[in-house]
Design a protein that fits this description.
Blueprint (H helix, E strand, L loop, with lengths): L1 E5 L5 H14 L10 H8 L10 E7 L2 E13 L4 E11 L8 H15 L5 E2 L7 H9 L15 H8 L2
Parallel strand pairs: 4-5
Antiparallel strand pairs: 1-2, 2-3, 3-4
Length: about 160
C-alpha cells in the first residue's frame, strides 16, 4: 500500500539519502554536498522561524521509496504564489507503483489549498521518461524558457561593489 506523508525532522538523514540518490540518477553525485544539518536548519528550524522548504515522503508498505521537496515562489505577472518543486525522486525498485504520481497529486492538492497559480519544476532534457510522464499528467514542458543560475566565485564577483 502506498502512503504519502509530510517529512519530520527525524527524516533529515533520509532526505539527504534521497537527494544523493537523485544526484546519482542525474549523473552528478559530486554536486550533492547537502548535509543532515543543512536539512534540519532550513527545513525544520527552531520554533518561530519559518521553514525554507517542505518535504513529502512516499512510502510503499511502510518503507520510504520517494520524496518531493518544494517551496513557494511568487509570480509578479500573476500576483500570486506558486509551488516550486525542487526535487522529485522515486527509487528505481518502486517505480511504476504510482509513487511519483501520488507525490505530484499531493503537491497539487497543497497548491490548490493555498490558492497557488500553479506548480513549476525543471526536468533534464535527456530524461524522456520523466518528460512523457509529466506531459501525461497535463504538464507543459516550456522549451522557450532556459534556466539560468550564478554561483560561487561568479556570484561573489557580481556582489562586489
Amino acid at each position: 500500500m502506498l502512503t504519502i506523508r509530510p517529512a519530520t525532522a527525524k527524516d533529515a538523514a533520509l532526505i539527504v539519502e534521497f537527494i544523493r540518490d537523485l544526484a546519482e540518477y542525474e549523473r552528478a553525485p559530486e554536486q550533492a554536498i547537502v548535509s543532515k544539518e543543512d536539512i534540519l536548519r532550513d527545513g525544520f528550524p527552531a520554533p518561530g522561524a519559518a521553514p525554507r522548504f517542505w518535504v513529502l515522503i512516499a512510502e510503499w508498505e511502510g518503507k520510504p521509496v520517494g520524496f518531493a521537496l518544494y517551496f513557494f515562489n511568487y509570480s509578479t505577472w500573476l500576483g500570486r504564489w506558486g509551488l516550486y518543486l525542487e526535487d522529485l525522486f522515486v527509487r528505481p525498485e518502486a517505480r511504476g507503483k504510482g509513487a511519483g504520481k501520488a507525490l505530484l497529486r499531493e503537491l497539487a492538492h497543497i497548491a490548490v489549498k493555498r490558492q497557488c497559480y500553479g506548480m513549476r519544476w525543471v526536468v533534464l532534457d535527456w530524461n524522456e521518461s520523466a518528460i512523457k510522464f509529466y506531459e501525461s499528467l497535463g504538464a507543459e514542458v516550456q522549451k522557450d524558457w532556459l534556466p539560468v543560475r550564478i554561483m560561487g566565485d561568479a556570484m561573489k564577483k557580481l556582489a562586489e561593489k
